[in-house]
Write a structure and sequence with these properties.
- Helix content is 35%, strand content 24%.
- It contains 9 helices and 10 strands.
- Strands 1-8-2-7-9-10-3-6-4-5 form a 10-stranded mixed β-sheet, sandwiched between helices.
- α1 packs parallel to α5 and α7 packs antiparallel against α8.
- The longest helix has 14 residues.
Length: 230
């Protein structure tokens, strides 16, 4: 198994084999928590207007997402695990759009398969990759706004890579680096868009036993995040 490290939307566009698009803070952590709260289906898009258009056809759809960390005006939630934890989402459809993670999913057109990963489902993602044993795995760290390197995404790629080599990742050391680096904003009381609770919810390795695979949803032109139990 050949492992490629890539970053940002350009990396997603270059990804081949099985592409693992990584967004820890917070797109794919939020997606995992949405399924945890009972969401029936999660669709993703890179386009805010496409999300609104889908809700016009399906009025009960929950819209979740952000631009520049701020909840999109008219959306039900921002890109925040803490925000969705109190909701009972059984039977609800969700459309998720973010500045980084979902942009990577829609651009990974050269990949054979596309997975969405964060620390909370990293172990399940690695387990699926071990089962499939593809010739090439592309680990794509999306970074902050898909333009600035992010410690948490790069380290999540390292975490998955270590598991693929049957090594025990030193998550405690990773967490210390994240807290000092790009995770520091969650401890800034002036940053109301990044609550501390999100930091802790996103850094719970292996919390969820499922993989998220992005597949074309022919009925609506979006991508469907399929939950696969491993």
């Amino acid at each position: 198994m050949e492992i490629h490290y890539l970053e940002f939307t350009t990396g997603a566009e270059e990804a081949t084999g099985i592409a693992v698009i990584i967004d820890v803070f917070r797109a794919f952590s939020t997606a995992c928590y949405l399924y945890h709260r009972g969401a029936e289906k999660i669709f993703v898009t890179g386009d805010v207007e496409q999300a609104f258009a889908y809700r016009r056809t399906r009025p009960g759809t929950l819209l979740v997402g952000e631009r520049n960390e701020k909840r999109v005006e008219g959306f039900d939630h921002g890109n925040s695990p803490a925000s969705v934890l109190g909701d009972d989402l059984h039977g609800r459809e969700v459309v998720l759009t973010t500045s980084a993670g979902t942009q990577g999913l829609v651009r990974a057109r050269h990949a054979d398969r596309i997975l969405a990963a964060s620390f909370v489902n990293a172990a399940a993602t690695a387990a699926l990759l071990q089962q499939e044993n593809p010739p090439v795995v592309s680990l794509v760290a999306m970074g902050y706004n898909a333009v600035i390197p992010a410690d948490e995404d790069r380290l999540c790629a390292d975490y998955i890579h270590a598991l693929l080599e049957h090594k025990e990742p030193d998550f405690a050391a990773m967490e210390r680096q994240i807290r000092r680096g790009t995770g520091a904003r969650f401890f800034d009381p002036a940053n109301l868009n990044s609550p501390e609770e999100d930091y802790h919810l996103c850094l719970m390795p292996g919390r969820f036993p499922y993989v998220l695979e992005a597949l074309p949803a022919e009925e609506n032109g979006l991508l469907f995040l399929k939950k696969i139990i491993v």
